[in-house]
Design a protein that fits this description.
four-stranded parallel β-sheet; about 425 residues; Rossmann fold; 3 domains; about 5% strand; alpha/beta; Fumarate Reductase Iron-sulfur Protein, Chain B, domain 2; binds iron/sulfur cluster; single chain
Length: about 425
Amino acid sequence: MEAHLADFIKGTTAGNEAEAILRACVHCGFCTATCPTYQILGDELDGPRGRIYLIKQMLEGDGPTEKTQLHLDRCLNCRSCETTCPSGVQYSRLLDIGREVMETKVPRKLWDRLLRGALRSTLPRARLFGAAMGWGRLVRPLLPKLLQAKVPPRTGAGLRPQVLHARKMIELAGCVQPSMYPNINAAAARVLDRLGISLLESPGVGCCGAVRFHLNDVEAARVDARRAIDGWWAQLEAGAEAIVMTASGCGVHVRDYGHLLREDPAYAEKAARVAAAVRDLSEVIAGEKDALAALLEGTRKERKGRSAVFHSPCTLQHGQQIRGVVEGLLQAAGFEARPAANGHLCCGAAGTYAILEPELSLQLRALKVEALAAGSPGVIVSANAGCIAHLQAGTPLPVRHWIELIDQSLASPER
Ligand code: SF4
Ligand code: SF4
């Protein structure tokens, strides 16, 4: 697709990148069939090809309108279209460029501005968010149903092993996960410890910046990224093997640090090294599969017949192109890991999408829960705290992080 970019962006880094992406798109429309918002709304402009057109028009100087904003806001950035596209179009990058431009050209309504501002300033601050979550739990019965669903009951983290091993990896604590699901990183630390790897905490790192990035506050996201790099740097220099992500939404974002900070002379090189050190937890554990199999010896029989269904977050299967790994680990632990229909579709959580676009988000969740529950599994598992919270609010089935199941399997067959 040929594009004639307007002067305001022509020749810039973003403009050149957008031009190359637009050129790769041959307008075939294959991507439309696997786009969740197109499937629900049936409007070409709510599918990838239509959105690519809207962005192209905007970059060519055809002023964006509220209509452009509506259709770009409705995009989940799930990247299902990228997985489908036979031409390798980097839709998500184009969307980022388009949204950044749109933000400067189309004013938002007051309520939208306030809501986005509140999300930008609370979610990335782990302590503030933790305090809000604490208050939310106290008054949970009084909250409206929609908000109640966002406040999971308090759960414990269990014991965290001491740092004893020569092999070390670094964790990202994250922003909302520590107060919503403190057991996830603790379970990861316990499992890795059994495999001979110590998982190092990195106090002060906090949010990776994904929240603010996806709320179109790119400069604030760069600040978050620099803080994370500074927080991890000494541990990386001291020989830590990897930065382990227990939330796939963070993983896909940190893998992009090199791109995000490519024009920052002080951080470009460090950002590329940090990005290269990122591993999803499933990749790390799968890399130790012989040691895991030895530890799991004896648990397979007791656990045979327990069924789990895996919801693969878009940020894992489309964003990081990691597929089948978690399912293999669950099977190794004796779980019958059933596939669900339409596994490529988003559950509707998508970062802050569930708050900003509640109607579409709830429709997507209803479809996803129906597909996941179809085989009457004992438990739904996922790999991202946002998906877990969103799905749990829509089903009586327990929804857990997959590492918690592996942790339980290693702890005792009875648990
Ligand atoms: S599948 Fe790829 S090339 Fe075809 S319209 Fe979609 S983005 Fe463009
Ligand atoms: S990112 Fe997801 S919602 Fe957005 S256009 Fe692509 S498939 Fe559709």
